[in-house]
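TL;DR need structure tokens for one chain.
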Amino acid sequence: MVGQTVGYVRVSSAEQNLDRQLEAVGECDRIFQDKISGSSRAKRTGLAELMQYVREGDLVKVASMDRLGRDTRDLYAIVDELTGKGCAVQFVSERITVDKSGTSPVDGLMLGILAAFAEFERRRIKERQAEGIALAKARGKYVQAPKLSGTDVEQARVMIEMGIPKAEVARTFGVSRQTLYTSLRRFESG
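>> reply
TL;DR here they are.
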């Protein structure tokens, strides 16, 4: 049974660009996307929609393994769920396609090895980042961006409702526009 080609792309934040991944997955009948960290599967609405959408015979294309699962266990669980529905999963950059019927032992082995290496690399990056921050703090060079208090956020909302541009509101409080946007979102979500 030949189904649809369905793409899945994910970046860790709204500021990051999906273009490279969209180019990698190529032309698809439908593409699902998430602009959120992969740390919580429950927050990945694009992935949840994809899981509901796919049917037997569909091919799910992902730019690379680390875009589908946050760690080896998560990756295997998602791939297992998709192949259990009768879908094939293609990882473009790794050149691996996994499906229930015809996955070669070599592809299965490569999936495991590459997933483990991707998880190892993510952990090393976090470790190096933490080491760099600790070193910068020890040298007195690490300064966190200013944050807005709840009162500041409320005042900022009032200013914005009065028609004052957000860039000007951010300058008033001595923060970047991104900090203002993040604080406003955090305040709205409770």
